[in-house]
C-alpha cells in the first residue's frame, strides 16, 4: 500500500516538474521573440507585410535554437534547469544559428513570394507552379526542422548539417512524417483558435518533435560521430 502511494506521488512530482519546465521555458521563448510579437500584433496579416515579418523573424532564430537545445536536453536526461539551460543554449548557438537561420529564412521568403505570384494567375501553368512550390515548401519545412534540432545537439559544418538534414528527411520516413503531422495538427489548431497558440505551446511542440527524432540522434551517433574509444574526439 505504501509502495503504491509513493509511486503515485512520484508520478505527480514528475508531471508537476514537466509543467513547470514547459511553462518557464515558454515564457523565456516569448520574451526572446518580443520583436516578432510586436510586429505580429501591430501589423495587418497581409502578404504586403511579408518583408517586415521576414525582418522581425531574424532575431527569432537563436530563441528557437535555445528552445530546441532545452527540449533536447529534457528528452535526453529527463531533467531541466529552465533558466540556465535556455540561456546557455541561446548563447552557445547564437553565432551558428544565424549562419543557418538567415539562409533558411531567405529561401522561405523566396518560395512564399513565388507562390503568391503564381496564385495571382488562374492559368494552368500557374496552378502547376503553385503545386510545385507547395511541395517545395513542405520539403523545406522538413529540412528546417531537422537542421534546427540536429544543430541543437551536435556541431557540424553548415554544409554537412544541411546534407544530414536532407538525408534523414528522406531516409527516416517515420520521423519525417511524424514531424510534418505535428506541424499539420498545430496549424489546424492555430487556424481554429488563435495565432498565438504556437507561441504559448512552443515548448510542448518542440518537445514532441525532439522526442520523435530520437532515432535520428541514435543514428548520427552510430554513423557520423567519432568516439573517444577509437582514439579521436567526438564532435558532439
TrEMBL record:
Residue ranges crossing the lipid bilayer per the database entry: 20-44, 50-69, 100-118, 124-149, 180-211
Keywords, comma-separated and alphabetical: Membrane, Transmembrane, Transmembrane helix
Please, which domain of life does this record's source organism belong to?
Bacteria
Does Transmembrane helix appear among the keywords?
Answer: yes
Keyword Transmembrane helix included in the entry's annotation = yes
**Which protein are we looking at?**
DUF624 domain-containing protein
Q: Which organism is the protein's source? A: Shouchella clausii (strain KSM-K16) (Alkalihalobacillus clausii)
Amino acid at each position: 500500500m505504501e509502495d503504491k502511494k509513493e509511486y503515485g506521488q512520484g508520478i505527480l512530482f514528475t508531471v508537476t516538474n514537466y509543467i513547470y519546465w514547459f511553462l518557464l521555458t515558454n515564457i523565456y521563448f516569448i520574451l526572446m521573440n518580443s520583436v516578432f510579437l510586436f510586429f505580429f500584433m501591430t501589423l495587418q496579416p497581409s502578404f504586403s507585410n511579408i518583408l517586415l515579418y521576414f525582418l522581425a523573424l531574424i532575431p527569432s532564430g537563436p530563441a528557437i535554437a535555445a528552445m530546441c537545445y532545452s527540449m533536447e536536453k529534457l528528452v535526453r536526461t529527463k531533467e531541466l534547469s529552465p533558466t540556465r539551460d535556455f540561456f546557455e543554449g541561446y548563447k552557445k548557438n547564437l553565432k551558428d544559428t544565424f549562419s543557418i537561420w538567415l539562409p533558411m529564412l531567405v529561401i522561405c521568403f523566396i518560395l512564399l513570394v513565388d507562390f503568391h505570384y503564381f496564385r495571382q494567375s488562374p492559368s494552368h501553368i500557374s496552378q502547376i507552379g503553385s503545386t510545385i512550390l507547395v511541395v517545395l515548401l513542405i520539403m523545406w519545412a522538413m529540412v528546417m526542422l531537422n537542421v534546427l534540432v540536429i544543430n541543437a545537439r551536435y556541431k557540424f559544418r553548415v554544409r554537412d548539417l544541411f546534407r544530414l538534414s536532407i538525408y534523414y528527411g528522406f531516409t527516416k520516413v517515420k520521423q519525417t512524417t511524424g514531424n510534418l503531422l505535428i506541424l499539420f495538427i498545430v496549424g489546424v489548431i492555430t487556424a481554429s483558435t488563435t495565432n498565438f497558440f504556437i507561441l504559448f505551446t512552443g515548448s510542448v511542440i518542440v518537445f514532441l518533435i525532439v522526442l520523435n527524432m530520437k532515432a535520428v540522434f541514435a543514428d548520427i551517433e552510430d554513423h557520423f560521430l567519432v568516439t573517444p574509444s577509437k582514439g579521436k574526439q567526438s564532435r558532439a
